[in-house]
């Protein structure tokens, strides 16, 4: 039995194939509700677009990739500036550190005087030298202060 | 689809949409929704996916209408969006292997077999199954949408010479695939079934 194939028409030549491709449009059943669904979605997108356009611009600005880096650099710079400006003020106007240094030296001297001679005896020479060094250091520090 | 000469062109409607006319955009939707749906449906395993992608295509087109250049043709621009939506969709959810392709009957009755076969669907479903996506798209846009090389190149974002090669290869592959059955003047029902069993790439 000679079979007639569905493709028999356009097997003979390329032109026939082209004709078949052009003429035979696949048919798909278009969903009847799809048009309304599309238009609803488009209108919803339109409403959302108009409502959020202002906030979107701000969000885009905030989300800019350079903003965090710039902010961090600004904070670091601000910290450095504050520390630079606050340092001379602290040294010139606040005498507290100087008093603490002299107190520390005085306490060292008192400690040495209060220890029993048996304990201090073997190391007395060294302690005397250390005490002298401390005194000189204190004199130097006092001399360097404005 | 040939529009009435008195009705505004697609590009004029796009221009009106850019100016804020929702009615103009709805007219564009009416003109293109079926064409986009059929195009998308060729790639989808079910109608729901096709409907979803079609809807997304028009929403995206509306949102991006300001970027459309009205001095150029509207159809390639819209099909570009549809094609991208298909790619995005299947990147997120890959399609089932070949569920969409019509399976051919194993019936031993040739007349029954042929009666069930829709020639139109078979030719394009054959094309869809054996051709790579780009070749199929080029073939579809050329023969169904009647786009020229320049317009297809816009949709596929390739040079025109590349589109020529795509079309040539697609036609050649299709013709080659149809050849084996040609040699057999007498075909048994089993042979027909085997001839139509097209391997999936």
What CATH calls the topology of the largest domain in chain B is Rna Polymerase Sigma Factor, Chain: A
- Catalogue the unreliable spans of chain B: 98-116, 182-201
Helix content of chain B: 55-70%
Instruction: Describe the sheet with the most strands of chain A.
Output: none
- Average pLDDT over all residues of chain B: 78
Q: In what range is the share of β-strand residues of chain B?
A: under 5%
Task: Calculate the terminal CA-CA distance of chain B, rounded to whole Å.
Answer: 32 Å
- What's the assembly state of these chains? heterodimer
- Point out poorly predicted stretches of chain A: none
Give the number of domains of chain B: 2
Mean pLDDT of chain A: 74
Quick overview of this protein structure:
Chain A has 146 residues and is an all-alpha fold. Chain A has 6 helices and no strands. Chain B has 2 domains: 1-96, Orthogonal Bundle (Rna Polymerase Sigma Factor, Chain: A), CATH 1.10.1740; 108-201, Arc Repressor Mutant, subunit A, CATH 1.10.10.
């Amino acid at each position: 039995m000679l079979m007639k194939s569905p493709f028999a028409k356009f097997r003979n030549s390329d032109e026939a194939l082209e004709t078949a491709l052009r003429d035979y449009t696949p048919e798909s059943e278009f969903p009847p509700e799809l048009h309304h669904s599309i238009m609803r979605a488009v209108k919803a997108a339109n409403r959302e677009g108009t409502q959020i356009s202002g906030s979107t611009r701000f969000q885009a600005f905030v989300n800019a990739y350079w903003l965090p880096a710039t902010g961090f650099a600004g904070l670091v710079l601000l910290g450095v500036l504050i520390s630079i400006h606050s340092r001379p003020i602290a040294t010139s106007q606040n005498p507290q550190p100087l008093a603490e240094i002299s107190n520390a030296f005085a306490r060292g001297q008192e400690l040495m005087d209060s220890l029993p001679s048996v304990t201090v005896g073997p190391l007395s020479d060294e302690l005397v030298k250390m005490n002298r060094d401390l005194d000189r250091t204190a004199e130097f520090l006092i001399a360097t202060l404005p | 689809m040939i529009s009435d000469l008195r009705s505004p062109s697609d590009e004029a409607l796009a221009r009106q949409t850019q100016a804020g006319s929702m009615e103009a955009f709805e007219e564009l939707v009416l003109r293109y929704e079926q064409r986009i749906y059929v195009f998308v449906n060729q790639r989808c395993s079910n109608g729901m996916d096709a409907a979803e992608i079609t809807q997304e295509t028009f929403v995206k087109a509306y949102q991006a209408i300001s970027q459309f250049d009205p001095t150029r043709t509207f159809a390639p621009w819209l099909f570009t969006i549809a094609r991208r939506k298909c790619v995005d969709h299947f990147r997120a959810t890959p399609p089932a292997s070949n569920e969409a392709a019509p399976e051919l009957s194993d019936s031993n009755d040739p007349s029954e077999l042929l009666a069930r076969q829709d020639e139109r669907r078979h030719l394009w479903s054959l094309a869809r199954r054996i051709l790579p996506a780009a070749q199929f798209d080029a073939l579809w846009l050329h023969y169904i949408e009647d786009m020229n090389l320049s317009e297809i190149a816009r949709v596929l974002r390739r040079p025109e010479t590349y589109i020529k090669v795509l079309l040539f290869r697609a036609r050649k592959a299709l013709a080659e695939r149809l050849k084996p059955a040609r040699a057999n003047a007498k075909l048994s029902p089993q042979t027909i079934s085997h001839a139509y069993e097209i391997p999936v790439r």
